[in-house]
Amino acid sequence: MTTIKYLIFKNFKTVSILTLCCLVSLFLLMVRLKITHSFFLLFLVWNLFLAMLPFCISFYLQQQENLKKWQLLGWSFLWLLFLPNAPYIVTDLIHLKLNDGLIVLVDFVVITSFAIAGLLFYLTSVRDMEVLFQRNFSKKLKTIFFTMLPFLCGFGIYLGRFLRFNSWDIIQDPASLVVTVAKIIIFPASNWFAWAVTLGFGFFLWILIKGYKKCSTLKKS
Description:
This protein is mainly alpha-helical and about 220 residues long. It has one domain (about 1-220). The chain is built from 10 helices and no strands. The protein has helices spanning about 1-10, 10-35, 45-60, 70-80, 85-90, 100-135, 140-160, 170, 175-185, 190-220.
């Protein structure tokens, strides 16, 4: 318990901002449920939980003093599997088309609040992992990995939103996942939409992390 308290106070600003975003999102969802008497958007709570997982992993790794490289690589693989879940919530805006009238505006506000929380989890987690890679690996390896990372997440978002794969399918149904990914890579022309989504979200996340770093640098200076 003492360790948990220490970690929270050590990272108080980050934890408090993320907690506030989650509470605001949940509050808005409760208001929506009260107004509509519908549980339609309740899946956002699960999506937000999945978005927290990569942050929890990177937060835990940040506190490890004697982390070996092979341990970091193993955790990084697990982290990468769950990372697309954080920005994935943005795609939940697709559900707006299922409603009309004033409720669309309400749903837009609710989903956007969850999407912002998910993106903050993504940005914070990527920042923490980048620090860990900088400490443990060469600059070249770090640069290559984190340049590819937004596009890997974009690909993960495509697999999740349009092909309905989950992070745990790599264990539950690895054969189907591998075959699907191989087809997309080998036959890019017939899978142009997959590449369009991957590149679109990839550039969006790349710009987002660049802006986030820029703002962080300005605050420090």
